[in-house]
Write a structure and sequence with these properties.
5 helices; elongated; Ferritin; about 0% strand; binds MU-OXO-diiron; mainly alpha; about 75% helix
Length: about 160
């Protein structure tokens, strides 16, 4: 059993994870249009991982006999100007998600809900990894500067990301 308060908070997080998936699909879509095929592949895998995050919370609520409520998913932006812009926005978005995961942790901790804490701890670790990946890509973009050759190489490298 989990509290109604935590059930509501996890449902809100399911919606955020689904929005994250939609946002990264929008970035994949923009990358395809810019002929950044590697980046498009990277964002498609990211979108799929976010869907997996939503499903992890979904499965947990069902395991706990709680109710899953699926809300509308907001329309993601479509006006991405460059690879830099997309990864800048990805980091900003992930930092926001980290903040929400931390809030879930605080709530579960205040309720001494150890089962939920165990699940949320997985997400805490996942956020560390996600932010680190994007910080690394942004550092590589900074090194490349305005070099189109460098951008081409980085895009190829991003295309090698394995599905997680
Ligand atoms: Fe599900 Fe990228 O956080």
């Amino acid at each position: 059993m989990i509290s109604k308060k935590l059930e509501k908070a996890i449902n809100a997080q399911i919606n955020r994870e689904l929005y994250s998936s939609y946002l990264y699909l929008a970035m994949a879509n923009a990358a395809e249009s810019m002929v950044l095929k590697g980046s498009a592949a990277w964002f498609k895998i990211q979108a799929s991982e976010e869907n997996g995050h939503a499903m992890k919370f979904y499965a947990y609520l069902h395991e706990q006999g709680a109710k899953v409520e699926l809300e509308a998913i907001a329309k993601p932006p479509a006006d991405f100007s460059s690879m830099q812009a997309m990864f800048d926005q990805t980091l900003k978005h992930e930092r926001q998600v980290t903040k929400f995961i931390r809030e879930l942790m605080v709530l579960a901790d205040s309720e001494k809900d150890y089962a939920s804490l165990g699940l949320i701890q997985w997400f805490v670790n996942e956020q560390v990894e996600e932010e680190a990946n994007v910080v690394e890509i942004l550092a590589q973009l900074k090194m490349i500067g305005g070099s189109t050759g460098g951008l081409y190489m980085l895009d190829r490298q991003l295309g090698k990301r394995a599905a997680g």
